[in-house]
Structures are given as structure tokens and as C-alpha cells.
Amino acid sequence: MIDLAPDLDAYFRRIEFDGRATPTLATLARLVERHAASIPFENIDVLCGRVPRLDLASLRDKLVRRRRGGYCFEQNAFFVAALRHIGFDAAGLEARVRFGVPADVVTARTHMAVRVTLDGERYLADVGFGGLAPTRPLKVVELEVQADAVDAYRLLAEDDELLLQRRTGEGWSDCYRVAPSLPQAIDYEMGNWFVATHPNAFLRQNLLVGRSTVRGRLTLFNDTLTLRRPAPAPEEERTLSSRAELGDALADEFGLPIDGGDLDAVSAVVESRRAG
């Protein structure tokens, strides 16, 4: 792994982190909050036919220098590297996405999350689950309700895995199930390849962009832009009806100005989903 030290300050500037870089819970909470607000979840490269590269040099170039976003394998891999350089005991995890999946359907381990151990306590820190990711570290304690600025979460033990749930107006909704074993880098490469290339993979067929804002959680799913605010405030929703509106939303709401060719590719996917 390459040395992150020369660009840690650039990463801090990118996420507007203004605290002391020490391995404490307060620092971890601030890093998660600022990362979620500054680096959007997005799968634009995948919709343009590119497989994201997971080596640290490529991640640093994309997320920091070019000020793009990425999905879980990119964001959490870079986040782990930054945490370790600061001095945190941080490790990547593998998880099965359960959001929107019927209970009898078994999903693959296509999500990367992060575990941080502080003073003997374990925390889930995830900056790569889009608009559903908690914007604060969650202490790994079963059934304890833990809230961020918009949502409430809890963790449940299921068999030998750990299930993350988010509270909705209808009750508790599954997010993902974390596997107990620590994966190897090749496991992430396999998951990354599947998500980016399999014709039936969700992120191969849909545009998904998300970030945390001072107004709430902002999500773009194909042509629908949604702002989710703390309860009981209702969601705000707007439909983007043209290529130009899509490009403006990516640039203005998520800080993602993309070139014309990529916007054409993304717009084509959105139009196909609208027509379908």
C-alpha cells in the first residue's frame, strides 16, 4: 500500500475537516460526518462502462484530486487507509445488502463497511452506503437505538452475522448483514468486479447518488431527487425531466460536474429506466 501521508492534508481540505487528527471517538465521529457531507456516493463510472480501480493511488486521484465520489469499495477503502494513517485500529468488513430485498432472497457479499476498535469497544463506521449510511459511528451493541441527524439505527445479531437496520415510518428496515470474518483485498476485487460488470447488478442498471447536507439526506435515484429530513418532516421529491436538469443536479446538488460523454451515458440509463 502506498503512503497516504503526503495527501492526508488534501483529504482533510476535501472534506473540510478542521479538527485534530488523533485516534479518538470525537475525531472518528467528525471524520464520518464530514466525509458523508463532502464526498458523494455515486456510480457514474459503472454506468459509463468502467470498473472502478481500488488501488490507493487511483482512489486518491479520484476522490481527492478530481473531487469525484464513488461507491462502497472506493470510499471505505480510502477511509480505512486514512484512519490507519491517523492511528486508528480500522479494518474493512464484508456485508450482504438487504435493503429492498425479499427475506427469502440470499444476496452476495457486495458491500464494504468499516470496523473501528477504540479502547476495547467496536464501532461500525460506514461512509459508502449512500443516503442510508449512518453519518456517525455506531457502537456495536445489540438492539441499542443510535441516531444521527436524520435517522435512527440499531444492530441485531443474526446467526453469526450482524444486521444493521434503519427505522422508517413503517418500522425497522434492513440495510445490510455484516459477515464475521475479515476479508482479503481479493474479496473486494471480486465484489467490485461483480457490481460493476454483472448485467443484473443493481448499480449496473440504475443511477444512484447520495450525500448528507445541512438540510437532510439528499438522494438521486435515476430521475428522482429526494430530500429526506428528520421526522416528522415529510420528504421532498422532484423529478428531473431532461439531460440538462440531470447535469445541473449532479453539479449543483452533489458537486459532480461530469463531462458531456459521461453525462450522455448516464442520461441514457436514466431514460431507459424511465421508459421501462
What does this structure look like?
It is a single chain. With 276 residues, the chain is of the alpha+beta class. The protein has a single domain, classed as Arylamine N-acetyltransferase fold. It has nine helices and 13 strands. Strands 5-4-3-2-9-8-7-6 form an eight-stranded antiparallel beta sheet. Strand 6 and strand 7 form a beta hairpin. Helix 1 packs parallel to helix 4 and helix 4 crosses helix 5. The longest helix is centred in the C-terminal third of the chain and has 16 residues. The protein is globular, with a radius of gyration of 18 Å. The mean pLDDT is 94.
H/E series = HHEHHHEEEEEEEEHHEEEEHH
- Anisotropy-based shape: globular
- Provide the structure class: alpha+beta
How many domains, as an integer?
A: 1
Query: How much beta, percentage-wise?
Result: 25-35%
Rg estimate, integer Å:
18 Å
Total number of β-strand segments?
13
- Arithmetic mean of pLDDT: 94
Can you tell me the CATH topology?
Arylamine N-acetyltransferase fold
Comma- or semicolon-separated keywords:
alpha+beta; eight-stranded antiparallel β-sheet; 9 helices; globular; Arylamine N-acetyltransferase fold; 276 residues; single chain
Sequence-ordered SSE layout with sheet pairings:
Blueprint: H1 5-15, H2 25-38, E1 41-42, H3 44-47, H4 56-65, H5 72-86, E2 89-97, E3 111-118, E4 121-124, E5 138-139, E6 146-147, E7 152-158, E8 161-168, E9 171-178, H6 185-197, H7 202-205, E10 208-212, E11 217-221, E12 224-228, E13 236-239, H8 243-252, H9 260-275
Antiparallel strand pairs: 1-10, 2-3, 2-9, 3-4, 4-5, 6-7, 7-8, 8-9, 10-11, 11-12, 12-13
Helix pairs in contact: 1-4, 4-5
